Input
Amino acid sequence: MPDGEKEPRAATRRVTLAEVARRAGVSQTTASFVLSGRREEMRISAQVEAKILRAVEETGYRPNVVSRSLRTGSSHTIGFVSDTVATTPFAGHLIWGALDAAREQGRLLLIAETEGDAELETQLVETMRDRQVEGIVLASMYTRWANVPRALLGGPSVLLNALSKKETSVPSVIPDEAEAGRCAARLLLEAGHREGIYVVGVGVDPVRTPKGSVAACERLAGIEEAFGREGVRLSGGAFLGDWQPHGGYEATRGILSSRKQVRALICFNDRVSVGAYQAVADAGLEVARDVSVVSFDDEPVASWLRPGLTSVALPHYELGRKAIEVLLALDGASGSGKVHRVEMPLRVRESVGRSGAGLDRPARRAAK
Amino acid sequence: MPDGEKEPRAATRRVTLAEVARRAGVSQTTASFVLSGRREEMRISAQVEAKILRAVEETGYRPNVVSRSLRTGSSHTIGFVSDTVATTPFAGHLIWGALDAAREQGRLLLIAETEGDAELETQLVETMRDRQVEGIVLASMYTRWANVPRALLGGPSVLLNALSKKETSVPSVIPDEAEAGRCAARLLLEAGHREGIYVVGVGVDPVRTPKGSVAACERLAGIEEAFGREGVRLSGGAFLGDWQPHGGYEATRGILSSRKQVRALICFNDRVSVGAYQAVADAGLEVARDVSVVSFDDEPVASWLRPGLTSVALPHYELGRKAIEVLLALDGASGSGKVHRVEMPLRVRESVGRSGAGLDRPARRAAK
DNA sequence: TTGTAGGCGTTATCAC
DNA sequence: GTGATAACGCCTACAA
Output
């Protein structure tokens, strides 16, 4: 970087199009046409164009986007309103994907957070519309059912990671949780597991899931569907109000201490799996060899555990991208209320062993 | 929520101030004064005010912020440009803090990511200035030295989590890493540790730190200062190019397998600690009882480990807040280039044991 | 106390 | 091919 100089001008006054035109000795209109690339169309001479471009160069002219927005009605800006970015760290990838997709289409993102406050949500949506955003993405940091706030209907919008409770014209973008469930189940089936399979995170008999969690319901449905097709049934499950390591630890301990044979655990997220690993170790068993573990989300910790945790990933980045794409494809009208499901990719590591793999060796528990 | 109705009007045309004024039977000026709360000042009658407010109510008028910005020159928007939000998940808290502070002052945040691309960075900063942002926060996701891009000097700006390589007028907001180092060292001293203390993440003899990492240098300096004051010296250290679990595992294994007594580890972040825990367990030792561990960052995983990992936290949220505060306090001028250091709070868990605590019992290694 | 008029920097419509 | 001129919606000096 060739910058031997001192710091240059601080906040020099901005140059306007009028000044550029004057400097180039043409009218503002001509300058405007050239700069918006409509020279050919308007049959403006190449010489004139050159003069204008030189003036732009010399003055360091940059168009005033605010003014342009006032005139054209669009600010080339998209509003992104989320409930919380805080508790689910990698949900930041949602924003990342949205940012990338937006930038590729020449848009910037106006971001705000509601922290779950419905009134604030309405307020923020309106504040953004006041700024002439082209549309609004209303994002939830974990997949859930939500009320579509009235304010959202005032213009183009998309629900990200959320489904409307009622019929609505607002489209949704969510991960394909049911398929993820099937995927996890198939993985176990392929490894030869047909019994001693437990779910950790939801109750199974009767079914009991954390309130409002789309993921819980759809994952379970997918799991049971894939197993059912092969005549396999879950041996049980443990409901957890929230999916954190401590709960996963306790639940897994409970399952392991029951009289039944435990061959595989389907943990409903990676944090639960962290607890499950600890409980398995405490019982003198080994993950994969004695107890297979499949998980969901694929947070970074999944790759830190040993053996590496096989997990069906939340496609945060892709979700973010998709939301912007859907929004920008929503020309004018509010959309069809279509639900777009994004595939959750399987990340295979080492936590699933073949059924029976550990049977020929004595379990460590026996050795104690 | 009382909403038995169907979805209401989609994107009704926006009402202007002129319409409100006409409807209220007053001039636009009067309406404008009332709505900007200058009724008293302009001595406008309460009746007139009421008429105007009613018209606003009836029409659902919302001011066009774009137009206002064009007129006033400020968009009540702050630009937040970061290098990556991706790799360091909890850095999202930086954004969260900034978002909160901005909203409290009636500002919205325009966010963008450079992914480390300097050209893109310049471009984004300029794009934001084109939108008349009040100022720009240039954020780095881990504390480092950075070049201040020229584009930043065109208006108010703040470096977040970064220090300028050269003298500059742009102020910085960074975590107080040196004090964090002292804090970690003091904690070990108070637990009675005076020897067998190793750092994991940086080399110590000769000193070797990951390129560009302010944290590495300042943490180490703080540690050595606090120890030096008590006549204590580090027994050694292991340099790591990046601070991930795998490296932490290998480094710790190396340290433990050396002939020397190992009593305490200062891991340079929590991921390194994850690896260290695994290596300690593999050696048949126990964290806290046999080997104390102190760490930095306080990522969520710190509380998931067992025993819970004591860590000096990166105050992401506070950093984000502070950056906005500093920026908004920067009236007009570019600022003094002052460096604001934010305290890193210590989160005490169970990974530090008293020196000698494990000595009366046989170490598990011996029992093998 | 209220109204008129000009301008912020663009874009777009029409004459020339 | 080019140049006045009028919006876009709001703010505010100044006039009444």
